[in-house]
């Protein structure tokens, strides 16, 4: 019986010494360093925490120098190994993290050293690269929206066939592109005025309704593309407000010269 007790005592002492050898030595009084950092082997951890745990990252980020053991236990629990709880100056954890964008798991050991008042003072990771899991991802830089011009001029010849008010394929694309810009700034837009113009060729009785139909065609296309109808006003001003004067000459040359006057203007308020 005495031999059995002696054997048990020796075995217990051996285990205790093995445990002591698994932890850091000569922790400084201020808890900011240790004579030698030692890491307990994960295979020796108690079954309660076998395999480690997935920590709450937000809670883990709250652990800073100066927090006490009670606060730490509330955030990430008590240590995962058998170093003890209240009377020791080192806590060890085994955490699992998932790699960004995959289901792969990385295991990391985390160590906290305490000062003589049992306040956390220094923190270590093994491997050291595991500290990156606590980095807060920077939000993607918001796209800087271009300033919305207060007036956009669309050449009628690029939108419509000559003397017509139906948008061409190219014209529809041009209006679609404009609609995308308008929608991007819609929160700041109070109103949109679409104004159609013609050149001076032809009578006012002909030019006025043509300019109105062209303005409405652009407005309708914008509405189809998602611009609120309640914010758009369409009007036609015929041959008024020309932006270019051209001398009379051969018709083909005159038509080409007057092209800038055939336009649709979109004013944004």
Automatic annotation (TrEMBL):
Does the keyword Heme feature in the UniProt annotation?
no
What is one term from the GO cellular component aspect held by the record?
cell outer membrane
Assigned keywords, A-Z: Cell outer membrane, Membrane, Signal
Q: Where in the cell is it found?
A: Cell outer membrane
Task: Check the record and name the InterPro entries matching this protein.
Answer: Bact_OuterMem_StrucFunc, BamE-like, BamE_dom, OMP_bac, OmpA-like, OMPA-like_CS, OmpA-like_sf
Ranges of residues in domain OmpA-like: 147-269
Q: Which PANTHER family match?
A: LIPOPROTEIN YIAD-RELATED (PTHR30329:SF21), STATOR ELEMENT OF FLAGELLAR MOTOR COMPLEX (PTHR30329)
Q: What is this protein called?
A: OmpA family protein
Q: Name the lineage.
A: Bacteria, Pseudomonadati, Pseudomonadota, Gammaproteobacteria, Lysobacterales
């Amino acid at each position: 019986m005495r031999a059995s007790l002696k054997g048990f005592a020796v075995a217990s002492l051996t285990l205790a010494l093995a445990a002591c050898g698994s932890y850091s030595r000569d922790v400084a009084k201020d808890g900011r360093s240790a004579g030698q950092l030692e890491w307990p082997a994960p295979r020796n951890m108690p079954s309660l925490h076998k395999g480690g745990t997935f920590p709450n990252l937000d809670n883990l980020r709250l652990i800073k120098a100066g927090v006490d053991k009670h606060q730490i236990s509330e955030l990430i629990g008590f240590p995962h190994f058998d170093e003890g709880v209240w009377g020791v100056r080192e806590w060890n954890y085994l955490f699992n993290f998932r790699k960004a964008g995959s289901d792969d798991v990385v295991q990391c050991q985390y160590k906290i050293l305490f000062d003589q008042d049992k306040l956390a003072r220094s923190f270590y990771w093994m491997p050291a690269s595991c500290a990156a899991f606590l980095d807060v991802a920077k939000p993607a830089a918001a796209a800087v929206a271009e300033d919305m011009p207060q007036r956009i001029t669309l050449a009628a010849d690029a939108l419509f066939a000559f003397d017509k008010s139906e948008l061409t394929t190219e014209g529809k694309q041009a209006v679609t592109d404009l609609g995308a810009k308008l929608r991007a700034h819609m929160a700041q837009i109070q109103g949109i005025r679409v104004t159609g113009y013609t050149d001076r060729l032809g009578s006012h009785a002909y030019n006025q309704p043509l300019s109105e139909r062209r303005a409405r065609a652009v407005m309708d296309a914008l509405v189809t593309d998602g611009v609120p109808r309640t914010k758009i006003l369409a009007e036609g001003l015929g041959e008024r407000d020309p932006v270019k004067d051209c001398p009379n000459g051969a018709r083909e040359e005159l038509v080409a010269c007057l092209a800038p006057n055939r336009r649709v203007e979109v004013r944004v308020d």
